[in-house]
């Protein structure tokens, strides 16, 4: 279940205000998670916590709100707020070696959100596949872009292999969070309470 299932779909001012608050709040959560950073001496790409936050945004908020949250995150970072990994900011970061991963976040949030809306999170297995698909999308964007800076012969050693174990752990954590929230939402919805 995602946020779009809970909110009344009318276009009232209060719903728009709530949506804006959710978009901005989620963008700030992604920005905070981007500060959980481990720099690798051989790669311009750091290990961060933001990948998980991006995928969960799509999974829980759906394609429109999830993608809007990531677009807000990117816009704020590009505008000069220290939102990117390690407190970086600006267009130089957005279009630098890690820019493909950043743009991949937007695509991943949209696709994961779309799959979520199609009910690909009804079971832990389906949610797991959805999270993995989102991770693959981020890698595709990131690696294609990074190859322009480091060359095709080095891109996998610099932009993929060092991150696989960490991403596996983030995927497992995402599955745990999805499982816990699904159980919580199911229990509260069966008793008539909205989250």
Integer-rounded radius of gyration: 17 Å
Using the coordinates shown, work out and report the CATH topology.
Answer: Arp2/3 complex 21 kDa subunit ARPC3
Unreliable spans are: 191-195
Number of helices: 8
CATH architecture: Orthogonal Bundle
- Overall residue-averaged pLDDT value: 87
Please characterize this protein's 3D structure.
With 195 residues, the chain is mainly α. It is 70% helix and 2% strand. It has 8 helices and 2 strands. It has helices at residues 3-6, 13-34, 50-78, 91-94, 99-117, 124-150, 155-159, 164-190; strands spanning 37-38, 47-48. The longest helix has 29 residues, at 50-78.
Q: What is the compact description of this entry?
A:
The protein is mostly helical and 195 residues long. The chain contains eight helices and two strands; from the N terminus they run H-H-E-E-H-H-H-H-H-H. Mean pLDDT is 87; it is low at 191-195.
